[in-house]
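Field reference: sequence -> structure
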Amino acid sequence: MIGRILETAIRRRMQDKKAIILMGARQVGKTTLLQHIFGPEKENVLWLSGDNQDVRQLFENFSAERMKSIAAGKKYIVIDEAQRIQNVGVNLKIIIDQIPGVQLFATGSSSFDLANKINEPLTGRKWEYRLFPLSFEELVNHTNLLEEKRMLPHRLVFGAYPDVVSNPGDEIEILRGLTESYLYKDILEFDKIHKPDKLMRLLQALAYQVGAEVSYNELAQLCGLDSKTVDAYISILEQAYIVFRLGSYSRNLRNELKSSRKIYFYDNGVRNAVIGNFSQIESRMDAGALFENYVVSERIKRNAYTGNYARSWFWRTTAKQEVDYLEERDGKLTAVELKWNPRRKATPPLSFQRAYPDAEFFKVNRDNFEDLLLLRYSDLLDLSCRINIPPPLR
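Structure field:
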């Protein structure tokens, strides 16, 4: 198994009295990760899957005494796809409180159900982690930096789901099956989705607008929905770990966009499967957008895995001056311009420099992108000082 960064964090919490909740899209490797962690102790694990009807029935008629009998002699209880179980949060609380000596794990592939079911019952009783498709750092640790940099064109097209990475030559078939059979499964079963065909149309529209600002009104007209439904559907796509939003950063200028957003995909392969385009990067018109999606999503993964609580944004004015990506932490601002072509120049807009004179700025391209994806926030600030593109105006 390719080493997962979360493994160390989860092992550190084992034998804790709190539950360990592992969230992430289907097929990102949640089950495989836990099986690897248990290793030789797999016989000490009671594994229950919410995909199975008899398991759901078990929790419909749940009691601590019955679970004690079922879990007798086990050190760990794993409830896989827990979002499919009614009242799962209350039942998890009962296991934690009334079955001592057992470590509880639960996984979920959609947060719109599971988060609502467990947040209140498990307040103060859980550690929660998110697992993504394989990150750049995980792949570097599995091979080496040079090899993974060489694979960048491939990752921009096919992404980094574990099955995709592990089965070269079968990427297109795997991604088609993944999007058609797994990623949509939780979404289309969600009872607020009344027009699944229009949801799929919306997802395609978002795929074509990666790296650009999106207008809910325009998306609504394009997909035959109202803007409130577009907002609700995008929230569901977020909670299924397919897309995420970046808001616009605004503090000082009248003409800064204050309520705009960009929407990115967690995985480039899924994005390309949605629009059915697996052309090689050299022949694509959207190479810049794919590079931006890849770097921003990888930075989001990096921040989540390292506990870096920097907030992420983009910046733009009504005059269309723009910075692709911002991070803010402890009042410090770092600005990044993303260029697929290393020869393309990038300097911060003068209005940005004047408004944020203390912000650090640097350009990321296909030659140096690894710096942004392997460094913590404090190291990023040090790096930006070393490769700053001209200093901000004072």
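Note: Residues 384-394 have pLDDT under 50 and may be disordered.
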